[in-house]
Amino acid sequence: xxxxxxxxxxxxxxxxxxxxxxxxxxxxxxxxxxxxxxxxxxxxxxxxxxxxxxxxxxxxxxxxxxxxxxxxxxxxxxxxxxxxxxxxxxxxxxxxxxxxxxxxxxxxxxxxxxxxxxxxxxxxxxxxxxxxxxxxxxxxxxxxxxxxxxxxxxxxxxxxxxxxxxxxxxxxxxxxxxxxxxxxxxxxxxxxxxxxxxxxxxxxxxxxxxxxxxxxxxxxxxxxxxxxxxxxxxxxxxxxxxxxxxxxxxxxxxxxxxxxxxxxxxxxxxxxxxxxxxxxxxxxxxxxxxxxxxxxxxxxxxxxxxxxxxxxxxxxxxxxxxxxxxxxxxxxxxxxxxxxxxxxxxxxxxxxxxxxxxxxxxxxxxxxxxxxxxxxxxxxxxxxxxxxxxxxxxxxxxxxxxxxxxxxxxxxxxxxxxxxxxxxxxxxxxxxxxxxxxxxxxxxxxxxxxxxxxxxxxxxxxx
Length: 463
Ligand code: LLP
Description:
The structure is a single chain. The protein is of the alpha/beta class. It has helices spanning 55-62, 71-85, 101-109, 119-127, 144-153, 163-176, 215-224, 246-266, 292-310, 323-326, 360-364, 454-460, and strands at 41-42, 48-50, 53-54, 66-70, 89-94, 113-116, 135-137, 157-160, 180-187, 191-193, 196-198, 209-210, 229-235, 272-274, 316-319, 330-341, 347-351, 371-372, 381-387, 396-404, 412-416, 437-441, 444-449. The chain has two domains: 13-70 and 328-460, Lyase, Ornithine Decarboxylase, Chain A, domain 1 (Beta Barrel); 138-321, Alpha-Beta Barrel (TIM Barrel). Helix content is 28%, strand content 24%. The strands form four sheets. Strands 4, 16, 17, 18, 19, 20, 21, 22 and 23 form a nine-stranded mixed β-sheet that branches. Helix 2 (71-85) packs parallel to helix 9 (292-310), helix 5 (144-153) crosses helix 6 and helix 8 (246-266) packs parallel to helix 9 (292-310). It is globular, with a radius of gyration of 24 Å. The chain starts with 40 loop residues before the first strand and ends with a helix.
């Protein structure tokens, strides 16, 4: 690896330009266990290891950029969620966060169910052997062909998202001579986002059927009237990267209220409620996510309390964490390419990936952290912006972070907590080749999604 000299970048002590960042950690070599997966540590040479394998070896064998997924951490998180909710509840992993055949097998082995939201995700789940009854099918505009496949496969539930879909699913089920288990997705009037929840303007979105104006009650009436549908419950999903349980409490209360109204009107007590996903993870040291057992306790307590007040039998609860399971289990490994110090501002560090492997920073202003992982360094902290190699200036991976000032081309740096919505939202922008996902466990590393090749790109280009 070359370590060519470059002009010194601005030091944090000299200048702090605009941006969201706290002071650099006292020691940049220390890896905050909050944001790194469980088996990540530094070896005696100072190199980061995951599953017992040093990053230099991983980079040599699999190249960069690449996502390294800590399999034992993934499995441990699945178990933690399953144990926290216990036998009287169901945990559905949200496949949109990241899905591959290996992941489906791990979920199956660890006793989780799976939420899919497209024909592609359904195919992956079935192909890898997830029993259809453990699959829930979501989406605001499922095609009739997708509904056909889901019904034919015998998925455990279809989550109805619109009035049209009630009729479509019933029609397909009737043609197949089955009674399809369904839930109705309602919008409960809570829109939750990072660190806050807002109880306004929430019906103004494409998902679900509104509770507030009686639409949800009407959808229930229609679904109950159709023999081809077995309405088993009500579903609600309030947002993403949520830390505050208050939004879930309001949502649970309103869903239970609907169950009580259904009982009063129709004389049926629906046996299930699904409170969706959206639980937050630590992307930086400032984030403090809840543990699954705290989340399970908060949700089950509120549902039991509300049901008792409404004199309802407590329904079976389900949840759909995606990010909270896979997010913390992976990091993206990059090689440093060019370095551009801007006196009085910050140092731009370009890596061999970018917005094609992590669109979240550009799209949501998401915050990430970064560390030098091929070695340790005692150099002072330097304020950096980690950017990609794409042809636009918004191609930012980490907006504001600190790396040692002796950083040089050829160094390996890693961005933690990239397991969710990075590979699954990766693109071929600038004909970038999407990076591989490598599962690491107990000293062994294996590719579970291979790196794209230029042949892959040309194969689709049939002009
Ligand atoms: N259930 C439903 C019905 C959902 O719509 C979602 C996410 C989940 C569960 C899982 O949410 P999670 O626990 O993973 O937060 N691309 C965005 C996130 C979009 C989430 C969409 N729905 C991001 O990168 O932050």
